[in-house]
Each structure stands twice: as structure tokens, then as C-alpha cells.
């Protein structure tokens, strides 16, 4: 199976209701065609923290918890997290559908963190046209130290409530953050608002595992959307030409049953100027809002333990890739 695959939203077929393949014929589809059936596009995961099922507490999918998670993770992020889940090859593959064709594009890298994805963006776009936004000053402090990003604007802010005017940017990019947003639909609606007419949003994020143990830890940790949920959120926000490209580390040989922290790159084009046609109520969470310290601590510890499982998965897959002969499934 190829490590990346471009899929148009109009061509979706779903496998066992939890995964999907494109409807155009290729080797992958033929191999799995007996499992293929069409299912409803309705999202199965909740859109707000309060409506999460008890079996999917997603302890770190909260702003405060994510803030503290990155307070510690920022220390090792570039050295430990990226090599296992988000390599330079994957980043370039994921940014390709964003169509960064001109150095003069205005780009916002939302939840840009330490600037790893921004380094991929500034290969194509002048750094002075790029803004990195993140809610974590600790992550941003790392980005500020990177020579290639010296000319970028760096701002603290919330992906669900962006400090940019309507119709501002040519490209909205956000990699590896949607999983922490309490209300992903709101973040995608914001992506729509800040883009100019014809502008493109590109959200790179996790995909939900199908293997039971990986699913268990994913549900404890944070939001791992299903591919069809991304498409649904983009369409509801008003985006047109919505496409999803599958990505993954090379050494996984296309395996997706353990889920992926960076598993797809979803793009959509803004067809008209102004705000998104989607109406939502007020924002549910704010990183500055006080929370019950005991509830916070319990969620933080349990979520961080669950996250550890996903540090081990890429190591396990790397070992399997070394042991199993090339060309065989792993
Ligand atoms: C996995 S890191 C990704 C960083 C970077 N985009 C990259 O590709 O390496 C996730 C980032 O999302 C940020 N984040 C989480 N929730 C956020 C929110 N609501 N608003 C802004 N940033 C957020 C975290 O602080 C963290 O830096």
C-alpha cells in the first residue's frame, strides 16, 4: 500500500464503517474490495468536550491540559516526537496539497509550535509572509530560536479564536493540533474565516486506529478523528474541493491499524469571501479560564500515560520493518 494517497471527498467509500478507500480502481481497492461498503458521512465522535462518550474521555483534548502537556513536551519535542511520527519526508508530502506555489503567499501556520512544519513552509514562501500562532509560549520559544524562521511573525493565540481579520490569508496550515481542540469544527470554521476567497486550508492530523489496544489508548489520550469526520467538518464549514491525502512514516509500510499521529492532510478551498456560513454557539473552553485542579491533574496524568503508548508504537513498527522481509505485509 502506498504511504500516501490522494482522495477527493466526492469519491469516498468506507471499509467496515471506520476507514475508507477511493472508489477509483487500483491495486489497494481490488485487494480490499470484499470489505468495501458505503456508509453515512455523519460524524461518530462528539464535537464538544461535554458530549464525549464515557468510553472516549480523551483526557488531553482540553486547552489547559494541552497547554501543560506542551509545557513539558516542548523540551524534547523536536528530538523525540518528530523522528517517530512526523519526519521531514512526511511533512513535505503533507504540504504538497497546500499548493505553496508562490513566495508571496500570505500564510498562517496555526498551532505552529516549535516551527517544524513552518520550516517546510518557508522553503516555498518568504518567511516574512508567514505567521506562526500557538497557545504555548514554550513551544513558540523554540521556534523563535530557529534561524530560518527569524523573519516570521510569532504570536500567542487560540486556534478556535484566531487574532486575524476575515479574508486575511492565502493559506491556512495547521499540523498536529486538531487533536487537542475541544471543538474541531470551530477551529475549521475559523480557518475558513481568515482565508481570502480562493484561499486554501490544509489541516494535517491523526487518524483513528482500528486495532483495539491502540483504539483504547487513543480514546484515553486525545481526539483521533476518522477520515470521514475531517471531510464532514470541512464541508460543513463551507469549503469546496475537499480532498484528503493519506500520509505515514515510510517504515509503517502503509499500516494504519494503530492509527497515526500524523495520518492525513486534508485540504479545502474557500469559495466566497466573508465568514463561514456555519453558525456555532459560544466557545466552550479557554486556556485562561480556571479549572478544577483535581480534575485537571487526574486528566493530565491519565492522558500523559496513554500518550506514552504512542511513543512505543513507532518503535515497534520500526523493529517489525527491520525484521519482516521487504515486500511482505507487517
Ligand atoms: C503536535 S504539536 C504540532 C506543532 C507543529 N505544528 C509541528 O508540526 O511540529 C501541537 C501544537 O498544538 C498547540 N495547540 C494545542 N491546542 C491549541 C489551541 N487551541 N490553539 C493553539 N495552539 C494549540 C500545542 O501548543 C502544540 O504546539
From TrEMBL:
Residues 107-116 are annotated as: SAM motif I. One of its GO terms (molecular function) is 2-methyl-6-geranylgeranyl-1,4-benzoquinol methyltransferase activity. It comes from Handroanthus impetiginosus. This is Ubiquinone biosynthesis methyltransferase COQ5. Belongs to the class I-like SAM-binding methyltransferase superfamily. MPBQ/MBSQ MT family. Its EC number is 2.1.1.295. CDD domains: AdoMet_MTases. Residues 193-206 are annotated as: SAM motif III.
